[in-house]
From TrEMBL:
It is a multi-pass membrane protein. Keywords: ATP-binding, Membrane, Nucleotide-binding, Transmembrane, Transmembrane helix. InterPro entries: AAA+_ATPase (IPR003593), ABC1_TM_dom (IPR011527), ABC1_TM_sf (IPR036640), ABC_transporter-like_ATP-bd (IPR003439), ABC_transporter-like_CS (IPR017871), P-loop_NTPase (IPR027417), Type_1_exporter (IPR039421). This is ATP-binding cassette subfamily B protein. The keyword Transmembrane helix applies.
Amino acid sequence: MLLLGSCITLMFPFLTQKLIDEGVNAKNLNLITILLLAQTTLYLGSIFIEIIRNWLVLYIGSKLSISIISDFLKKLLYLPFVFFDSRMIGDFSQRIQDNERIEQFLTSQSLLTFFSMFTFSVFFGVLWFYDFKILLVYLALTSISIVWSLYWLRKKKILDYFKFQEKSRNQESIYEMINGITEIKLNQFEDYKRQEWESIQQKLFAVNTRILKNDQIQTSGYELINQIKNIIVTFLAATFVVHGKMTLGELLSVSYIVGQMNAPVNQLIVFFRSLQDATLSLERLNEVQEHPVEDEKLSENKNIIHKENSSELAIQLSNVSFQYEGPMSPYVLEDINVSIPRGKITAIVGASGSGKTTLLKLLLKFYNPTKGEIHFEGKKIEEIPAINIRENCGVVMQDGFIFSDSIERNIATKDLVIDEQKLRVATKIANLENFIENLPLQYKTKIGSSGNGLSGGQKQRILIARSVYKNPHFIFFDEATSALDSENEKTIHDNLQEFFKGKTVIIIAHRLSTVKNADQIIVLRNGKVTEQGNHKELVEKNGEYFNLVKNQLELGN
Ligand SMILES: Nc1ncnc2c1ncn2[C@@H]1O[C@H](COP(=O)(O)OP(=O)(O)OP(=O)(O)O)[C@@H](O)[C@H]1O
């Protein structure tokens, strides 16, 4: 197809030459008609080939682009939490858009350049056939124009980096405005946030101005050299005609060829620009691609729970300390020694910021302890792949996420075929039955992203139903019922007691009703365990727990 296309293009200059030299000069109207008809046919042929070529580019391009972005997402979704902690949403979406530059380069640009280079070499041969001197002049000036363009392209590199930063900030700013709309409106933050966005736009404009200046110098210089080249080539060819070394038809043909050869050279410059953009984007993407995925060296072990010979202890933390941001940051947890008994309920209490959620995150392998060891079912946590821990845990986090999907999909998540029986049990335990029955499409009702359109309590109940549906051995609840009214909380609490039987449960809660029946209560203060025991023992101790209960947990309830 490619060859055919180029052969057709190749025939045009010969036809033009014949038309002038043997048709017009020899006053042969028949030949002129035949030649023009031939030209029309060739023209139609080349249109057809162009259509096929575009389809081909689209097809290969789409295939490649899906594969690149899918690979990127696959990698991204397997990266550890630490990677996400330090990055803004805007940065991620900008990186994904970056992906498009690579895709564009690999598909349209490289394919188009390949086609263009083929056309170029064909015309190169044809021009050689006509006149070697003209070819040499053409090549010399073309090389100068390419070197000129490359010089300015290199200067654009650093500007591209600045542009990426500002574009990320721009995305982040928009994302924050939409996500934080409630707080913005409630606290009259509108003008400040808009002005902040405008100031980002000003910086973006400044970078764009510098890029435009750079581009204009490059293109103007390139065009100038190009025009000089055209003039010199025409002058040379005209001189040859005057001296009788070339016919008028050949002159027209040479002009046509030179015109046709300019397009591939332009394409080559676009190719270099696109190559540079793609390389820069690739460097940014490599930060994602080269980051080690979670537990790269561990082989999966689905059965971390050995029911037959399992010991009494499900989880053991020995001298565990943790810092979020390296050696200079404060210890969020310090020297924690805690045993979590199998099949029992452990409650963690403590003031806000005392490290309760962090402790749970360490157990879920979001982070590795800075010091000390955690044993899961007698095995060091470092030796168990995070995925195997998490698939054995039903977790409700404080900031649990509701997906923009149906209620049943939000509860059953990864199960492709939803188990109706399990779904009903989960919604019953989470006291969601009445709510779902009153919805127009019941389980199939769509809920908005992040649970828009749901009350805080409804969101929490869906999150609870999600972990009940999963029915794992470990249950970790972080303030899972904090938004529920007392009636709902009591019903769910009672339902859960049955569900908790035989499971190892860790509950973080502020409400006494949730905590007091736990088999073991751990009191945290400033990242340290200050007390440990059951409700009765700790109240009798009259210490930290007693005070917490008195001040926060509604003693005597
Ligand atoms: N990603 C993070 N990076 C740095 N510091 C963090 C991070 N997450 C939490 N912290 C800090 O760790 C400390 C403990 O936080 P954590 O969320 O574990 O407390 P908590 O006891 O669960 O509090 P609450 O009851 O308010 O949820 C806090 O001082 C908090 O600022």
